[in-house]
Amino acid sequence: MLSGILKSKLLWGLALLLSLLLVVGCGQEAADEPDNGEDEKQEEQIGDWSIAVEVAGGETYTFTSEDALEIGPSEITVVQKEQDTFSEEQVWTGIPLKTVLEYVGITEFSVVSVESKDGYSREYDPETVNNEGTGIGWMVDGKPLDEENGPVQLFVDKRGPKHWIPQVAKITVVP
Q: Where are the alpha helices (H) located in 53-113, listed in sequence order?
């Protein structure tokens, strides 16, 4: 049997060890938490916007900047076609158009029409919509879009400026 003094020393040693582990463990958790400053920076860069996504003859959904952040923006490299030549590569921060549609539950369609705030619109076939170089973006080459083009613009890789829609307001899907 252990003497009272030895039991006391063992209990104090165990308490000290547990306290030390608790302090080290709590410090580790704090170090593992994500930096909320990065989240706030992304929110500032993306702004606050929404796009109506309407299925012809069906439901209307709203896709927002918060949805885009939840999906997680990606960098998409595209070029714009100008007659027989291509412009310099641009790196857009945004979401592929097909990912936007999938997010609201749309996976099949025959035509997708994208409309700007001023009413200009353009129709796109499934091949164009499903291309990784077709998407909506809020930053190009690391800079937020200006008021004339943003807050969100549709870009289409290797297509001319008539295919790019500034100030996207609405997406209409024809099943």
A: 65-71, 97-103
Q: Are 164 and 123 in contact (CB under 8 A)?
A: no
CA–CA distance, 130 with 42 (Å, rounded to integer): 26
171, 123 Cβ separation under 8 angstroms: no
Q: Strand runs (DSSP E) across the chain, as ranges?
A: 50-55, 60-64, 74-78, 81-82, 85-86, 90-96, 111-116, 121-124, 134-140, 143-144, 153-156, 168-174
Estimate to the nearest angstrom the gap between the alpha carbon of 175 and the chain centroid: 25
Any idea how long the chain is?
175
Predicted structure pTM score:
0.74
Q: What is the DSSP letter of 159?
A: B
Strands 50-55 and 168-174: parallel
Look at residue 17 and tell me whether its pLDDT is greater than 90.
Answer: no
**Average pLDDT of 62-73?**
96
Distance CA 59, CA 56 (A): 8
Angle at the Cα of 108 from the Cα atoms of 104 and 114, rounded to 5 degrees: 65
Task: Report how far residue 128's alpha carbon sits from residue 135's, in angstroms, rounded to the nearest whole number.
Answer: 10
Residues 133-159 have pLDDT tens digits of 999 999 999 999 999 999 999 999 999
| CA dihedral over 123, 126, 129, 132, signed as positive or negative | negative
- What the block records as the tokens of 110 is 């025959």
